[in-house]
Amino acid sequence: MKSRGWQYAGKQGGFKLEQPEGYSYLYFPLVNEAGMMSSITPNLHGQITSGHNRFLTEPVSAEALHNSKAARNFWIYTEKEGAWSVSGNSARQNAQQFAEGREYSQVEAGFLWHRVTRKHGMLPLTAETTNFVPVTEDQVELMKVKLTNTGDTPIRFTATTAIPLYGRSADDLRDHRHVTSLLHRIYTTTYGVEVQPSLSFDERGHRVNKVTYSVLGAEDHGKRPSGFFPVTEDFVGEGGALDWPEAVVLNRKAQAGPDVRFEGYEAVGGLRFEEVELAAGESKSYIIAMLITGERISDEEYAAKYLSEASFDNLLAQNERYWREKLDTIIFHSGDEEQDLWMKWVTLQPVLRRLYGNSFLPYHDYGRGGRGWRDLWQDCLALMVMEPAEVRYLLLNNYAGVRIDGSNATIIGARPGEFIADRNNIPRVWMDHGAWPLLTTMLYIHQSGDLDFLLQSQTYFRDSFIERSKGRDTSWLPEQGNQLLTCEGDIYEGTILEHILLQNLVPFFNVGEHNNIKLEGADWNDGLDLAPNRGESVAFTAFYASNLIELSDLLLQLKHRSGINTIKLGQEIARLLDSLSHPVSYDSTTSKLALLDSYYQSIVPAVSGKLVVLSIEDVVQDLKHKAEWMITHLRRNEWVTSQEGYEWFNGYYNNDGQRVEGDCPEGVRMTLTGQVFTIMGGVATDEQVDKIHAAVERYLKDEHIGYRLNSRFGGIQQNLGRAFGFAFGHKENGAMFSHMTVMYANALYKRGYVQEGYQVLDSIYRLSSDFSVSKMYPGVPEYINERGRGMYTYLTGSASWLLLTQLTEVYGVKGYYGDLLLEPKLIRTQFDAEGTASVETLFAGRMLEVVYHNPRQIDYGQYRIGAVKINGQQADLKMNGMGCLISRELLDVPEQGNLVIEVLLERIP
């Protein structure tokens, strides 16, 4: 019988789930800053790795979680009942999965630890298995198995740990799996088993290997194992398997003692402990450490650090404190306590993205680690309010990935600012990439007031690809390095402002036959990748248009606040501000592309290095002219009407140059993306927003899975993208794709459509947290599929957008050029019984607690900010529309602890 679903345990966000093995695909992340990246399931499956070429356990995909027999196993053998797995991961226990009276089990998890409790089906024996990755400098996962005799007579048993040691690159999973096992050098030590392959077989070549993979163990007071089973085939026995191994089932004598070496076999961390007798009511614990190290280790040293119950418990407490402090940088309090706890898991997700990248969890079984260009910028949105200390450094280094043709590096290194030339000779440009850096930089400037950041210098990325990867510069050699040079051979640097202008000006001219920006390799939706020639992204044309408006406003603020009247740009880049020298007709796609081609020719093989001085006012006028043209063009040419009378913006043109959205023989075609950026950026008028919302409700809203990314297109759309090869209702083809759904809510809030925005956000929460349908742990998934299951959990950029939307739009706590702007958009039901809603967050280098008092339970649209108190003192503040502006200086007070800002909401007269 299945459980009712997970339930929160306490006030910190921890949760419990009974009989978790009744659900497939569940996994939980365990990670640290040192680079240990684990995933763990209710039966202790999952993987342990520190990178694509360093897997301690076998790499797994989601399907392997229930199909593979390899796992972190811990066995108990008794004369009476034979072999029993503390995680339920034995052939006998698996066979009882759908039987009546199966064993009781429960998973409990918190930040960031995982515990499985299981009761023996025949003996009064309970096992509690706790796993976590400590916040140390080591790449290590720890596991404690605590066994308790709940009966009234002694129990004698023999314990055996069995953790398969894969010990190599993910590439070797099917590419020379057996051959690479011949590289294994297996050693037994005092406390465990180590594997150090002689060579590493991966794309880097056949190199001498030093990396070592170890499983060490001890009894609770540090007593070492009595023997070992290092070789998998000997441990499982002929005809045996990891879920029913001969060494345990027949209680065989240990294969080896310490200081024994084996070569050329698959390895297992098989640790045998001495037989013990557990008295009635007594407990006994075993501590296991799973390590990835740069060389062979001194196991005595690691045993002293990790292999005692006292050390384990101290490190676990330290781990909980670390994650609690990190996540306490944003705490929401509303009228729904469970949703507030759910938001703590959403808050965790951007940190997980920073640590895992887009790989190394079961659903994220692609790539080689690291993050893409878009991820660099969008993940910073949440880190800005959670881990702000390094954000300026990260942003500055990210800009070094911009190419002088307006595109950017697509291979991102492990370190900040590390960009690598394409090693596979597969050029590709996502047309949306240039749009995101400004959005992230604006958030940074509003939070910090640091306008000087715009005038910082940074290099440009250089490789052989030119003209947005449509051509190759054969004169460029890798030996020249990956930084743009001048004709004199010097490294060229431009201001951050120059980088931003370049990224938004080049796309303006890079248009297709309908005068929208070319789709190129894809936009935000990676699945729209089959329209590189005639495809156009209307959606991101709107985004770039709003960016040009934002840039013009930013330049005016720079002039007003910094007293700067001019800026310097590279001589070649200045040509893209065409109205200042040689204006072209924006109605003419030919003229636009000719100017762009001329620009491309001017920057290859090098730039002149000469700068021109331009008036800020002149630059602003050029940017506004471009933006206004784009907005007028979109409103005039991309507004579509269905036969039913619904209206919205077309989002795309396909590779045949055909408009994608509207009435089609297969039915109405509509994308959510095309609506989000027209609303968010102000391209859509208020009247159009009303009509778009009605159309979205008609064609994209599904009561079972929420707001779909697109309606059913019918057919595989080889002229648009691979997404339509997916079954409808899955991933980028018609699923509830959380990222765009959250951005749709954000856009509605920005435009004052609060009730509508709330309904969208609430649908995401309800869908994700309804375990009976979503079958996922707390958090927001990448998408919800046709059956309502949450897919690709934990690593999704939607978490950053959801967190930011809640903080800056719903609770209305945001920066405005360094000052604090309060502009709440909370509806009546979001206040608690006393009419209070609050948020704790970092701003201006300290924790703020913003408390909104709404004692009369007034709904949004009927209240305004009345009185404001800062640490109990009445503040005389400047009103800003429906909100108020608090100068940064008022927040600089000497009191310790949170700065409490109390806001009384009063009815609008």
UniProtKB/TrEMBL annotation:
SUPFAM superfamilies for the chain: Six-hairpin glycosidases
Record-annotated Glycosyl hydrolase 94 supersandwich domain positions: 104-306
CDD domains the UniProt entry points to: GH94N_LBP_like (cd11749)
Keywords, alphabetical: Glycosyltransferase, Transferase
GO molecular function: glycosyltransferase activity
UniProt entry tagged with the keyword Transferase: yes
A Gene Ontology biological process term: carbohydrate metabolic process
Keyword Transferase: yes
A Pfam family: GH94_b-supersand
Residues of the Glycosyl hydrolase 94 catalytic domain: 621-808
InterPro entries registered for this protein in UniProt: 6-hairpin_glycosidase_sf (IPR008928), 6hp_glycosidase-like_sf (IPR012341), GH65_N (IPR037018), GH94_catalytic (IPR033432), GH94_Enzymes (IPR052047), Glyco_hydrolase_94_b-supersand (IPR010383)
Protein name per its UniProtKB record: Cellobiose phosphorylase
Species assigned in the record: Paenibacillus lutimineralis
